Amino acid sequence: MNFKIYTVADRIRNGFIRPERLKNMQEFAKSEDMVLHSIPLKDGSALKLLANAVEFDCLIMKNGKVLTARGRAGTADDTAVNICGFFERLQKRRSKLVDQNVDKESFIMIDNFLNKFEKFMTKI
After folding, report:
1. pLDDT tens-digit map of 7-57
2. Closest CA to 58 of 81, 17, 88, 86
3. Rounded to two decimals, what is the model's pTM?
4. 42, 69, 70, 103, 123 from 10: Cα distances, Å
5. Mean per-residue pLDDT of the chain
6. Contact residues for 22 (Cβ-Cβ < 8 A; gap 6+)
7. H/E element, 73
8. Using CA of residue 73, residue 17, residue 51, residue 93, what is the dihedral sign?
9. N or C: which end of the chain has fewer CB within 10 A?
10. Residues ≥6 apart with Cβ < 8 Å to 110
């Protein structure tokens, strides 16, 4: 079987990244030259978003262990589109669950991540 590994999520699923490297996600993100954002979830797990100019990964983690990992790689434009699409889906899902307008909360969450991402991209 011949396959290509592009993303952090691919490397996690295929065992190329050891679980102990993920204990400190801030250090891991820095070592991978990525920006990190964390969103706590109701069940005690956390959604970890990792991004750089050509990659966007979403990890669901609980107690330092990865439960699920998905990622996409491409151009900088692809990464920006994936980030915006992700936050749109998240906003729709949250507004259905909460049954109220969560635009302000979502805007703050999106704004925080995009500000981090913009600072990261201007360092490159």
Report:
1. 999 999 999 999 999 999 999 999 999 999 888 888 899 989 999 888 989
2. 86
3. 0.76
4. 26, 8, 7, 32, 26
5. 82
6. 12, 28, 61, 64, 66
7. strand 65-73
8. positive
9. N
10. 87, 91
